[in-house]
Write a structure and sequence with these properties.
- Two copies of one chain form a homodimer.
- Helix content of chain A is 33%, strand content 22%.
- Chain A is α+β, with helices and mostly antiparallel strands.
- Chain A folds into two domains: 147 residues, 60s Ribosomal Protein L30, Chain: A, CATH 3.30.1330; 152 residues, PurM-like C-terminal domain (Phosphoribosyl-aminoimidazole Synthetase, Chain A, domain 2, Alpha-Beta Complex).
- Chain A has a six-stranded mixed sheet with strand order 7-9-6-10-8-11, with helices on both faces. A four-stranded mixed sheet of chain A has the order 2-5-3-4.
- The first copy, chain A, is globular, with a radius of gyration of 21 Å.
- The two termini of chain A are 23 Å apart.
- The interface between A and B is large, with 76 and 75 residues.
């Protein structure tokens, strides 16, 4: 749970002491071995190879919107730190690039305790070590609520054809492939909200909600093997496919029976509900990879997780690009759950 | 003024439409000509030369803390956008590096109107064009108040000795040099708050508060000419010198009479008050450059603004590094205004 202790001395610290304290607490997750480590006006570092392209993205979460505090909370403060890192890193994974450095902007309400900051930093640190990224810098400001915004900067090799996994490069005839299993995060959230005691066999679901893992390795391997199109499952699988369809000006067809669902979610909620969560729940941070079928075996061999073919790219048939899901009768299936719009 | 219109349809837009609208509005300030422009999971670009070092910093501002809304407002919404960009870019200027790309994280309260967003983006766009940086990506989330966090990513040449302007490289005997003139921003704020009609000769002060300009050119030239130590004047001149003193483990002595003050501020408030604002007001976004006196003529020749020698680096005499300001009698001078702590 997010523990909001009595207001303590947090804001009697100068920002500068607080920053030093956070850098200390980050330990090995702070980028101490770069040209200019955290603590100066800016951080400075070299790419792994001269000439590498820079890949950068920013992702924000705010209390009351992306996580709840107090009795409604579905995760600990350190889970919030972990998720913020994983969600940001996932955007770099979806490009097939290697994430390297994070810049963290923290907004703290006057009711934040130093315990809150310590726990948040612990989750950030754990997720950094897990995903092999480091914190290069940050800023801390007072605000009317707690919020965290993480910029992740990674890199990838420069090539004549600028190879990268993009949203706008799905080609008619390509297969649609999903890493891992979907619906686990939303099922975990539903399980936590039900407030029943959680059996050990269901803990994978709460972990998927609280400690998602970005698919950096398989994204990278897919790029190296020849894939050029991907997105991560953050808003909801069908909605994320919609971004690809509209950027690539194609339609995408998905076979519902082929969508790999988190097994514990099917056990807990039944296949129909688990499917709806898999199609629309979002926040699984799996990757959707779209590529020529001939590449499948190579990419599967290099992958550190299971890959499942769930659909195909077809020609756009109407004015607007569309995603169609088909049920086992070959009928269009509309899941009961819509994807997540970050703005809301 | 920040005009908070009646709540309109802002959050009926999907985030994705809002992002496209913002990219359109940014126009030439959006990085459309890079490998992967805004709109994908991450932006991708090449450095100007292969092997350049990456230089990155993040800076956040929140409504009610860094700017006021409604009747207490001291700047327009587009000024807020400008300032957010300039403050971030100033951190890169203080490294002697070249700022290139911005990633913008916007937190919007449910009371934000689309007019607010349009004006903010206009200010961002104007400041990007002025400082020759582009917006490579962003995220928009709902929050309990308006806030903006800007990550700026720049670059500089790699060299064997990793030359860069750092806080920890002031050497005993170096001179302390200030670009431009200090106190203008705080005097401008004071003038705006006084609510008197502002004469044309005083408009430089309101402009320094609302539309600060980062000193990118002189920072770069100082680095190229051999300087290795700098900071930007954001928290307050003496406080910023304190960061250098403590990072470099030296003391710094400043001659108050030599500190270049914004002339209009002296005219408006008298020399004594203008001095206090110059020493402690902050947010002038001038640079403090610290280097061997022998470099002064070269750096002055290459500078696009006036440079003034205001002090010298001396040996640290106590346990804690210290900054001492001396008045015309040679006595220690303690200004009435303390520097700004971002956390507060």
């Amino acid at each position: 749970m997010v523990s909001l202790g009595a207001r303590d001395e947090l804001f009697s610290f100068h920002e500068f002491s607080l920053i030093h304290r956070i850098i200390d607490q980050l330990g090995a997750a702070a980028a101490q071995d770069i040209v200019v480590p955290p603590g100066d006006d800016a951080a400075v570092w070299a790419t792994s190879s001269p000439g590498n392209l820079i890949v950068a993205s920013v992702d924000a979460m705010t209390a009351g919107v992306h996580w709840l505090e107090g009795s409604e909370s579905t995760m600990t403060t350190s889970d919030v730190g972990w998720r913020a890192v994983a969600a940001s890193v996932s955007d770099i994974a979806a490009m097939g690039a290697t994430p390297k450095m994070l810049l963290i902007s923290l907004m703290l309400s006057e009711f934040s305790s130093s315990v809150f900051v310590d726990e948040l930093v612990q989750g950030i640190s754990d997720a950094c070590l897990f995903h092999d990224v480091k914190v290069a810098g940050g800023d801390i400001v007072k605000g009317s609520a707690n919020g965290i915004s993480i910029t992740v900067i990674g890199e990838t090799e420069r090539s004549v054809d600028n190879r990268i996994l993009r949203r706008d490069s799905a080609k008619v005839g390509d297969i649609v492939v999903v890493t891992g299993r979907l619906g686990g995060s939303a099922a975990g959230l539903s399980l936590i909200r039900s407030a029943v005691e959680i059996e050990q066999s269901m803990e994978i679901l709460t972990r998927r909600h609280r400690r998602p893992e970005a698919r950096v390795v398989v994204g990278r391997q897919a790029l190296l093997a020849g894939a050029r199109c991907a997105i991560d499952v953050s808003d909801g699988f069908l909605q994320d496919l919609g971004h690809i369809a509209s950027a690539s000006q194609v339609d995408i067809e998905v076979i519902c029976d082929d969508v790999p669902l988190e097994i514990a979610a099917v056990g807990l909620l039944g296949r129909s509900m688990a499917l709806d969560l898999g199609l629309g729940g979002g926040e699984d941070y799996e990757l959707v990879l779209i590529f020529n079928e001939g590449l499948f075996k190579d990419i599967e061999r290099a992958s550190d997780t299971e890959l499942t073919i769930v659909g195909r790219v077809v020609e756009q048939i109407a004015d607007q690009a569309a995603v169609r899901a088909f049920d086992s009768q070959g009928e269009i299936y509309n899941p009961a759950i819509r994807g997540w719009d970050h703005g809301n």
